[in-house]
Design goal:
Blueprint lengths: L9 E5 L2 E4 H21 L8 H27 L1 H6 L14 H19 L3 H8 L3 H14 L14 E2 L8 E2 L2 H20 L8 H18 L18 H23 L10
Antiparallel strand pairs: 1-2, 3-4
Helix pairs in contact: 1-2, 1-6, 2-4, 5-8, 6-7, 7-8, 8-9
Length: about 270
């Protein structure tokens, strides 16, 4: 067993104001996406400008935060929301959902695409390779905060998380997700998109790979206590929400290589 590192989840405190590492990880994700976007924009043959990248990151940030919060409440806290709708604005209590954030980003990118007269999927194809930076940073934030831990296990790298009321040795599933959703997914998408790919392919690869990685990690991740397992003693909400991503992602890749449509500077929205 490995000792859990004693890291204060609060990075900086100034009087009554505390800045948590989890919040800093959001900034790291947005900053990383911005820098990568600027790098790729210079090599886009005029399809993307620095102004477009800045606006896309701004739209995306709003989509992540608003969609992530609404998604968490609807997917994981819906009975509590019905009893008290005000929990939606209690952001200080925590709670964000990747799948809600994804829907929020798609909605935000739709608005962005309309503004710049771009095809929605051309936008998501461009931005998809940068998303794993934020995903990986967020999982590190979960690990530092000692939350969203894995199931009990006897593997040699198991850890006891200080916030765990049972104080059991568990899988550090946050690090598994950091490795798969962050590092591995970034490498796959970055190299896959290094050369122009037909429309739909990069977005499809993101959905396919993330969905597979999330489904796999859910087998060793402790399900949300208020939901538990949905069926068969192993099916989780995260797996149920990720399965459509795998199906849609595979479909987009097949459609992309079949249609072979490449983005144009004058693409219709």
């Amino acid at each position: 067993m490995i000792s859990y590192p004693d890291i204060d989840p609060i990075a900086v405190s100034i009087g009554p104001i505390s800045v948590h590492w989890y919040g800093i990880m959001y900034l790291v994700g947005f900053a990383g996406a911005y820098l990568c976007g600027m790098y790729r924009a210079k090599r886009s043959n005029g399809l993307w400008t620095p102004e477009m990248v800045s606006d896309a990151i701004f739209y995306g940030a709003l989509g992540v935060i608003l969609g992530g919060r609404v998604g968490y409440i609807l997917f994981y806290q819906f009975p509590a929301f019905v009893d008290n709708p005000l929990i939606l604005v209690r952001i200080w209590e925590g709670g964000m959902s990747f799948h809600g954030g994804l829907l929020g980003v798609i909605a935000a990118m739709y608005l962005f695409a309309r503004r710049y007269n771009k095809h929605l999927v051309d936008v998501t194809d461009f931005l998809a390779p940068f998303v794993p930076i934020g995903l990986g940073a967020g999982r590190l934030g979960n690990f530092i905060g000692g939350e969203l831990w894995g199931k009990p296990t006897d593997v040699s790298w198991a850890m006891i998380f200080p916030n765990d009321p049972l104080q059991l040795a568990r899988h550090p599933s946050q690090l598994y997700q950091f490795a798969l959703e962050g590092v591995v997914l970034f490498c796959i998408l970055w190299f896959f998109s290094q050369r122009p790919k037909p429309r739909y392919c990069v977005s499809g690869m993101f959905l396919l790979c993330y969905g597979i990685f999330r489904i796999l990690v859910e087998f060793v991740r402790e399900p949300d206590i208020q939901i538990g397992y949905l069926a068969f003693g192993w099916l989780t909400q995260g797996q149920l929400l990720s399965l459509p991503m795998v199906i849609i992602g595979a479909g987009l890749i097949i459609a992309g290589f079949k249609l072979k449509i490449f983005p144009q500077a004058s693409a219709a929205k």
